[in-house]
Design a protein that fits this description.
heterodimer; A: 681 residues; 7-stranded mixed sheet; 5-stranded mixed sheet; rod-shaped; B: 231 residues; Rossmann fold; Arc Repressor Mutant, subunit A; 4-stranded antiparallel sheet
Chain lengths: 681, 231
């Protein structure tokens, strides 16, 4: 099948056969026409032709035009008899008493039947005779006219003729519709005309018809068969070509060549121009009454030339359609595309460069100008329709713009909500929006990366700190133990005892510091598994106060507790919740001024649960709340007291991890911590 | 005279532990890695092992697994790893106790004593068991004599503390909030006495527990209440 499709020989055969078959088809059709026109006998063919109205009209036309020429041009006086412009020339004839003018038959017209009409025209007023035959005795010729097979005579206002279509009655009727055929044109003239049957052999038209007629006369059924066969063959070949065109060996797709890439309009015009040129050649040669030797090659050339031109158009059209490029090859489509691209390009230029305000102004001014132009054209209905279309178009564009803005806004919201894995399709957008989308995609990508990076580095940090802490703890164990052993030795020297006390204190602090450090890094990197359950904050606070009772008492701190009677239930991890309170209470027990009150308040409203702790600092807090929150910062910058400085940071991380907020504030020596959990309904 | 095997790759720590435990009258056998420890166990009669986890070659957990194949000697793990996860996996492997470095010598001694007492008295369960004895693990409350003992050692409690402990021990395994404890012990409604109970419970814990911050018997369930562990 593919071989059949790609066969070059078969295609060439088709290209050759098509014009031949087509020619046969045309001839066959004309054969049918001619047969129907002139019947079946050879005799009737010429007679029927003579009997046809066309023949009569042409015959009469030729005569009248010749008479008119003579009337308008024959010389009126002696001097002009030999005038150059008059195509007749005077000849001497013995037995005719008046002048005789002769003109040879026109060679120009020699393929046209009517140029073989012989005539003798006599001007009744002058008695002059005009003719295209040479004779010794014109009177005798005139008497013989009626013996001719085809003749037409006008004499004494009467027509005598063998041609029925232009007899006396029919000419009157003919003249009524077209004054050209009026007998009045022949006034004062006697006209004797005849046409010998031999002349028929000189007429192309007649000869062709005669040939076709003769051909089909021998086999009367041939045209029907030929029409049938050639039609089927032509259809088959054209269908085959449609199917096979463009498929060549070794090529998977239909490839367009230079001709196929030409604009379709141009190709079409060129083909039509060539065909028109060839046709006009034929018409011209027919006009010029060229003889058979010229006209047959010209017609053949026209036929083949037109065939080639149409074939090129046909092949190219089929290829374009099959390659799905038909509309795309239209110049109009290309122009449309170019305009579209240019407008888009210009639009991008306008919307991409410079500041946005400028762009808005440009677009707004354009809108106003176009609107004004269209309003100016409002007089017509078209103007109104265009204005409406423009306004609705603008509205549509604005809505589209709005949708795209919403898209960008949603993407930003996603990022804001902490879901940075958004991606906008930049190709859908133009101008400013496109750039915004690009930036957002970049930010989103950067965020995602940064979050992953920081999570990873936090985890690594925690691991590092945990591992390092293990390595520190082992030697620290020895330090603490041997210091403890030293303490138990019986030492007399008070100085040494004091030194040992310092070592003891500092090594204990180091221990605490390491523990807090590990916890802080774990908590701040979120490396903690929460075990959420319903717990009673009131119970927790009471338990915590119980735990710290002795430490508060040591500093004589009075606890002012403001707790509701009802239970305060919260969803949290109870151990981490206690860690928060433990850290805060331990800060209070360490840093609150002795003999002061500590205010602890637990409160619940419809929207939140609050725990507030207030105490008076023993030392001046010359530090901001923010600084205090940072890791390793303690109320006194000297780092002299116990503690790691991580307590608040751990408490904050744990509070936030459990959905709360952690706020501290400093007012003079008043130190305040506020824990708050929003209740979502 | 009880033999205690101390295993740690840090010689100074082993020496320090030796000093503390010798004062308490124990005989110390030292080992500096897992292999040595197993060798010592096969050679000597050991009553308790103090085992470091992080050691080169054979670590503490692997050594413990080896020991547990043949012996039921109490093992106290000693480690710088202080995560819950580490403690749980250690205890699951068969350790009896877990102490984190840096440790408090007093706590170490207390835990050693407790474990030895339990191990030695294991099997010859108290014969004078009366109906009025409430018990969990090594914690006993004799309601007839009002005596409280942990690992056989008598503990002195105030009357309030005793009543609270008795109530919780009677309902061991169950969690009670402060007000429930108050209502049950005093038979009246609590009005702002909450943190008094919390203080009492802390005192009890300080008396009966080796490390009150990591109690074995009287557990604090933060934000919910207290309970006596059913061991």
């Amino acid at each position: 099948m593919e071989k059949l499709r790609e066969s070059v020989a078969l295609k060439c055969l088709c290209y050759v056969l098509i014009p031949i078959f087509f020619l046969i088809l045309i001839i066959s059709i004309s054969g049918v026409y001619i047969t129907s026109q002139y019947g079946n006998s050879n005799e009737n063919m010429a007679q029927s032709f003579v009997d046809s109205e066309t023949f009569g009209e042409q015959y009469l036309d030729s005569i009248i035009s010749e008479v008119k020429y003579i009337k308008n041009n024959y010389p009126t006086n002696e001097e002009e008899t030999s005038a150059d412009y008059f195509r007749y020339s005077q000849i001497d004839v013995d037995n005719y008493d008046k002048k005789v003018y002769y003109k040879a038959p026109d060679y120009y017209y020699n393929s046209v039947l009517y140029s073989y009409i012989s005539y003798i025209i006599i001007d009744e007023q002058t008695g002059n005779l005009y003719t295209n035959i040479k004779s010794k005795d014109y009177n005798n010729e005139i008497l013989n006219v009626q013996n001719q097979k085809i003749y037409w005579i006008y004499e004494n206002q009467n027509i005598t003729t063998s041609i029925d279509s232009v007899n006396q009655d029919n000419v009157k009727y003919l003249a009524a519709t077209n004054s050209y055929y009026s007998i009045d044109n022949l006034e004062n003239m006697k006209v004797y005309t005849w046409l010998s049957e031999e002349a028929f052999n000189y007429s192309n038209y007649f000869v062709i018809q005669q040939t076709i007629y003769d051909f089909f006369q021998k086999s009367p059924n041939a045209p029907a068969y030929l029409i049938f066969i050639t039609t089927i063959a032509l259809v088959a070949m054209i269908v085959y070509l449609c199917w096979a065109i463009g498929h060549e060996q070794g090529k998977k797709q239909i490839e367009l060549n230079r001709i196929d890439r030409l604009s379709y309009e141009i190709l079409f015009s060129v083909v039509m121009f060539i065909v028109g040129l060839l046709m006009s050649l034929v018409v011209l040669s027919a006009e010029l009454r060229a003889n058979q030797k010229i006209i047959i090659p010209v017609v053949l050339l026209e036929y083949l030339g037109s065939y080639v031109a149409f074939s090129v158009l046909f092949v190219s059209t089929v290829k374009r359609i099959k390659a799905k490029q038909f509309w795309h090859t239209f110049a109009i489509y290309r122009i449309y595309n170019w305009i579209k691209r240019t407008i888009k390009y210009l639009f991008e230029k306008i919307t991409d460069k410079g500041n946005i305000t400028k762009k808005i102004i440009i677009v707004y001014v354009l809108f106003i100008i176009i609107s004004i132009i269209l309003v100016g054209a409002l007089g017509s209905f078209l103007g109104f329709v265009l204005l409406m279309a423009f306004w609705f178009g603008t509205l549509y564009l604005l809505i589209q713009y709005g949708k795209k803005l919403t898209m960008i806004q949603n993407a930003l919201k996603e990022i804001y909500d902490g879901k940075p894995d958004v991606h906008l399709n930049e190709e859908e957008l133009v101008g400013v929006l496109k750039r915004m989308a690009e930036y957002i995609n970049d930010i989103a990508g950067g965020f995602t990366n940064a979050i992953e990076q920081s999570l990873k580095s936090e985890r690594l940090k925690t691991e590092l700190i945990t591992n390092v802490s293990h390595d520190i703890k082992t030697p620290l164990t020895s330090i603490i133990n041997y210091v403890d052993l030293l303490k138990k030795e019986d030492i007399k020297d008070a100085k040494i005892e004091q030194y040992i006390a310092i070592l003891d204190k500092k090594s204990q602090r180091l221990k605490k510091l390491i523990e807090d450090l590990v916890e802080a890094s774990k908590v701040s990197s979120g490396n903690v598994k929460l075990n959420i359950e319903r717990i009673n904050l009131k119970e927790l606070l009471n338990q915590a106060i119980g735990e710290f009772e002795d430490r508060f008492q040591k500093k004589n701190l009075k606890i002012d507790l403001d707790i509701p009677k009802t239970d305060i239930i919260i969803e949290a991890d109870n151990r981490y919740m206690y860690r928060i309170i433990d850290n805060l209470f331990s800060n209070i027990s360490k840093y609150a001024m002795e003999n002061t009150r500590v205010y602890i308040r637990l409160q619940k409203s419809d929207k939140f649960i609050e725990v507030e702790m207030k105490n008076i600092s023993a030392t001046r807090l010359n530090i901001s709340a923010d600084e205090l929150m940072q890791r390793f910062v303690r109320g006194d910058k000297s780092r002299y007291t116990e503690g790691s400085g991580l307590g608040l940071s751990i408490a904050e991380s744990l509070t936030e991890m459990q959905g709360g907020s952690f706020k501290i504030s400093i007012d003079g020596d008043l130190f305040k911590v506020l824990l708050k959990w929003n209740i979502d309904t | 005279m009880y033999n205690i095997l101390v295993v740690d790759d840090d010689k100074e720590i082993v020496n320090a532990i030796e000093i503390y435990l010798k004062r308490e009258g124990y005989n110390i056998i030292k080992a500096y890695n897992g292999e040595e420890a197993l060798e010592q166990i096969s050679k000597n009669e050991i009553h308790l092992i103090i085992l470091d986890i992080m050691m080169p070659e054979k670590d503490g957990i692997e050594t413990l697994e080896e020991i547990r194949k043949t012996k039921t000697i109490p093992v106290i793990l000693l480690s710088a790893k202080s995560e819950d996860y580490d403690k749980i996996s250690g205890l699951d492997t068969g350790a009896d106790d877990y102490i984190t470095k840096p440790f408090n010598p007093l706590e170490l001694i207390a835990r050693v004593k407790s474990n030895i007492r339990r191990y030695v008295e294991f099997g010859n369960i108290s014969k004078k068991e009366s109906k009025n004895i409430l018990k969990t693990g090594q914690l006993e409350v004799d309601d007839e004599t009002k005596k409280v003992t942990v690992d056989g050692k008598e503990i002195k409690l105030t009357a309030t503390e005793y009543n609270i402990l008795k109530f919780l021990l009677k309902n061991k395994g169950k969690v009670f909030s402060i007000s429930q404890i108050y209502e049950n012990v005093w038979n009246e409604e609590s009005y702002g006495a909450e943190n008094i109970i919390a203080v009492h419970i802390r005192h009890i814990r300080e008396k009966i527990e080796i490390n009150p911050k990591e109690p074995k018997y009287l557990k604090v369930i933060w934000g919910i209440g207290y309970k006596i562990e059913d061991i």
